[in-house]
Design goal:
The complex is a heterodimer of chains A (294) and B (264).
Chain A lengths: L1 H11 L6 H11 L19 H22 L11 H13 L2 H33 L1 H16 L6 H8 L3 H25 L3 H9 L4 H36 L7 H10 L3 H29 L5
Helix pairs in contact in A: 1-2, 4-12, 5-6, 5-8, 5-10, 5-11, 7-8, 8-10, 9-10, 10-12, 11-12
Chain B lengths: L29 E12 L2 E12 L3 E5 L6 H8 L7 E6 L3 E4 L11 H5 L5 H14 L15 H13 L5 E5 L7 H18 L2 E6 L2 H7 L2 E6 L2 E7 L12 H12 L11
Helix pairs in contact in B: 3-4, 4-5
The chains are: A mainly alpha (294), B alpha/beta (264).
């Protein structure tokens, strides 16, 4: 507004060469904005401020743990120091226990997961695509889903014994629902406008499913797979707590009998690392399968 | 008609197809021939006895306010909806460009264009088309990386690779900015000349309709309430004296007083 007013006031004052003040007034109202160079967030050095802030709390907790156990505030029998836990871990590796246990435990989780994913994805796709299938199966899935799978363990022990079958079945059951729910939702929420475009361009109903619906649902399916992988580890811990003769759960059971908190803690850390491993695997899978997400 | 030649020479190429007074070529194949088409959703009638005949090579614009049934009519012509009554004869070689580009996000540009075609046969045409729509070298781009205008160009290429006799355009430029829209107008006319489909063009933009079409039909309350044929060559329409007259007539038909901007 000032730029409009100033030339007029200059005219009223009868100042000669009115265009000059008008021009300068216009120029004065044009603000030179500071610029910042375009930066692309690509790779951040590990010691960047953001990462340091993120690492602060875990490192503080670790230091506190070390402090309370090293100063004897907490008895090392109840809660051994990080150094002792590390030592227990190294011992486990040196004696070959970990190398024996890990493949067995991972094998159980993987087998259970494979069954769970197969069942969950199959019914998720089926019920997502066909109203009739949804009517038949979905309500049953929703009811079974409400049962905490931990509660079924005694039943499964009676039905399937305490050997491997029972463990695999528990893990599989636990893995079905996260992937089922996400697959179902993914198939259901595929953009119907894209399916319509497929129809316009002459795709048969089957082609529309294979080239539009299923690829469109894939991101959501992978979310379900990620959840199920996490759940498979959870179910693994539970399944291995029952009559384990091998695996990580066996190590924990023995350590519990001997009140070796250092070994129990070390095993718990390994479970946590497996969880991190799940995330890494999923990230690789997503990058491979969803390149278009960029 | 007065011809004012200050209008910039558009890129539509020189000769328009030989047409009769109504913009039709007498020998051309009829691609749309519908009579008495009705459609209602529940109790609400949307189309109330539509008659329409379009020949190959014609460019027909359908104007109408929101809810006037334009899109329903297009969906019936594309057999995405079924009419409740009337007789319909529509060329089987037809294709659609929607308001949103509707590209599959998980396929690159080229497979998107080739969707539903025999990829081996159509590949060469697809690449040529991509170049024609100004997207040379975009074959391997992901739709996510395209601007709105670029995505709509891909959608045009996808529609034309099927060599349609009838091209149905459902407000294809409504979501684009004004500058991109002008470029798209030029492009659509170029492609129309080159591939020679009949174009059924839905818009609510009166100026756009006058600039592009041979024939403009106003749809209101489920019927065509007015039909205007324009014979002035397209490259002269921008500065054309009749432009404002036609514009006023069409706006009045749509219930807008172009002088005051108020509604009748």
């Amino acid at each position: 507004m000032t730029t409009l007013a100033s030339p007029r006031s200059a005219l009223a004052a009868g100042v000669p060469g009115t265009t000059a003040p008008a021009a300068s007034a216009t120029a004065a109202s044009v603000e030179t904005l500071s610029t910042s160079p375009l930066t692309r967030v690509k790779s951040v050095p590990w010691f960047s401020p953001r990462n340091l802030v993120r690492a602060a709390l875990p490192l503080t907790l670790l230091a506190a743990w070390w402090f309370v156990s090293a100063t004897g505030i907490v008895s090392p029998v109840v809660f051994p120091s990080p150094a002792l836990v590390l030592e227990a871990l190294i011992d486990m590796v040196r004696r070959g226990e970990l190398q024996d246990a890990l493949p067995i435990s991972l094998g159980r989780a993987a087998l259970g997961l494979a069954f769970g994913l197969a069942i969950g994805i199959f019914f998720g796709v089926l019920n997502g695509l066909f109203r009739a299938a949804e009517e038949i199966f979905d309500s049953s899935f929703q009811i079974i889903r409400q049962i905490p799978f931990i509660a079924t363990v005694p039943l499964f022990i009676i039905w399937f014994g305490i050997a491997e079958n029972m463990k695999i079945i528990i893990i599989a059951l636990a893995c079905v629902f996260p992937v089922y729910l996400n697959t179902y939702a993914g198939v259901r929420h595929v953009d119907s406008k894209l399916v319509e475009a497929g129809k316009v361009f002459g795709l048969s109903p089957i082609k529309r499913i294979t080239t539009i619906v299923l690829p469109g649902a894939l991101p959501q399916v992978l979310v379900g797979v990620r959840y199920s992988m996490g759940v498979s580890l959870l179910a693994l811990v539970l399944a291995e707590s029952v009559n384990a003769h091998s695996g990580l759960g066996y190590i924990i059971a023995i350590a519990q009998g001997a009140i070796r908190v250092d070994i129990i803690t070390a095993a718990i850390i390994i479970y946590a690392l497996l969880g991190v491993g799940v995330d890494v695997v999923m990230r690789i899978l997503e990058r491979r399968l969803l390149p278009w997400k960029g | 008609m007065t011809i004012i030649s200050e209008a910039p020479v558009s890129a539509t190429g020189s000769g328009e197809p030989a047409t009769d007074a109504l913009g039709r070529r007498p020998d051309a194949e009829t691609v749309v021939d519908i009579t008495g088409v009705t459609k209602s959703f529940g109790d609400r009638p949307v189309l109330d006895g539509i008659d329409l005949k379009i020949s190959r090579g014609e460019f027909v614009a359908i104007l109408g306010a929101s809810g006037s049934g334009k899109t329903t009519l297009l969906r019936i012509l594309a057999s995405l909806d079924h009419a409740n009554g009337g007789s319909l004869h529509v060329a089987s070689q037809r294709s659609v460009v929607f308001q949103d580009a509707r590209l599959l996000p998980f396929e690159r540009v080229l497979p998107n264009i080739l969707l539903g075609t025999d990829a081996r046969k159509a590949r060469a045409t697809a690449s040529a088309l991509l170049e024609e729509v100004g997207l040379r070298g975009y074959e391997k781009r992901w739709p996510k990386t395209l601007s709105g205008g670029e995505a709509q160009r891909v959608a045009l290429a996808r529609a034309l690779v099927r060599e349609p006799h009838l091209l149905l355009l459902d407000e294809p430029f409504a979501a684009l900015d004004a500058l991109t829209r002008i470029k798209m107008h030029v492009l659509v006319l170029q492609l129309w000349h080159r591939y020679d489909p009949a174009v059924f063009f839905i818009t609510h933009d009166v100026d756009e309709a006058i600039l592009l079409a041979d024939r403009i039909l106003v749809l209101s309350d489920g019927r065509f309430s007015r039909e205007i044929s324009i014979t002035t060559p397209r490259d002269q329409r921008r500065g054309w004296a009749g432009f404002n007259k036609v514009r006023r007539q069409l706006l009045a038909e749509l219930g807008v007083d172009s002088e005051t901007g108020g509604e009748h």
